[in-house]
Amino acid sequence: MSDAPLAVTPGEPAGVGVDLTVALWAARGDDMPAFFLIDDPDRVRARAAALGLGIEVAAIETPAAAHATFSRALPVLTHAFATESVPGQPDPANGPATVEAIARAVSLVRDGSAAAVVTNPIQKETLYQAGFDHPGHTEYLAALSGPGTVPVMLLAAPALRVVPVTIHIPLSAVPAALTTERIVTTARITATALRRDFAIESPRLALAGLNPHAGEGGALGREDGDVIAPAVEALRAEGIDARGPLPADTLFHEEARTTYDVVLGMYHDQVLVPLKTLDFWGGVNVTLGLPFVRTSPDHGTALSLAGTGMARTDSLKAAIDLAATMARRRASTS
């Protein structure tokens, strides 16, 4: 439903997720999309008070109540945690409830009660201690979406969009994981999302080479010619505007960025480093390939800032704004 509120998850209870959410609501403007937080209302009230924010918190039982309360109070869909959270001190006992909040948000957006999912950062090490068996948010959301779902991580900022073809794996494992089929599948999902969710009619995809100088004709590695180049040829044969492999060291300067709509990098840091360097606070993590809209701030739990009031809301605001825009676009074309 395009007029449904956004579902915001708390992320790591000891992190900055609740800080950012209450601060963002407190500073909201008239154009802020309506959202609700899945959390313990008493916990949210206590954290807001500790941050010196005199805001109203309204416990709601259904997302439908969020619109009626959003202008006067932060709507919080009641969700229980096992123990009281201490800022900066993650407790594995709260891991199951943290994961369940994500599952609840997905369930609500899939039944139309919420328009999109916006996830605050999780502390993966703590969740692993609690038995979480997924590498991160992206993989867990794919599992919740059902068999055959192929998630693609897009990082978006006003100056740059990037997609890592391989994500949370060691750098030493990248060459073996990188296949022509994987690149083609990632590029197809990316092109479809740029058309549907970003209103880019003919997306231009730039594919970075794996090796320095895109392999120097094989002198610096065979993957660029043997794996990436065939993927580009296959994509172009399908009518997708793709080019590469291109040397990564000349892909991200201002003039180069005018020639494409997204860069597909072959590994995580190849594309996340330039995006975060260009716009650390404005980046948004978007999961493509899901049957619902999901965005997230492009930063971690910032445990050292939790409870201090020093955490910046820029990325969460950008994530909420983008989620609302994507949800409207999907609703208008469904």
Concise synopsis of the structure shown:
With 334 residues, the protein is α/β, with parallel strands linked by helices. The chain is 39% helix and 17% strand.
Would you write up a description of this structure?
This protein is of the alpha/beta class and 334 residues long. It contains twelve helices and twelve strands. The chain has helices at 17-26, 41-50, 66-70, 95-110, 124-129, 137-145, 174-177, 180-198, 223-237, 254-257, 268-278, 314-333, and strands spanning 6-9, 35-39, 57-60, 74-78, 117-119, 152-157, 160-164, 204-208, 241-246, 262-265, 284-288, 294-297. Strands 3-4-2-1-5-12-11-6-7-10-8-9 form a twelve-stranded mixed beta sheet, with helices on both faces. Strand 8, helix 9 and strand 9 form a beta-alpha-beta unit.
Architecture blueprint of SSEs:
Blueprint: E1 6-9, H1 17-26, E2 35-39, H2 41-50, E3 57-60, H3 66-70, E4 74-78, H4 95-110, E5 117-119, H5 124-129, H6 137-145, E6 152-157, E7 160-164, H7 174-177, H8 180-198, E8 204-208, H9 223-237, E9 241-246, H10 254-257, E10 262-265, H11 268-278, E11 284-288, E12 294-297, H12 314-333
Parallel strand pairs: 1-2, 1-5, 2-4, 3-4, 5-12, 7-10, 8-9, 8-10
Antiparallel strand pairs: 6-7, 6-11, 11-12
Helix pairs in contact: 8-9
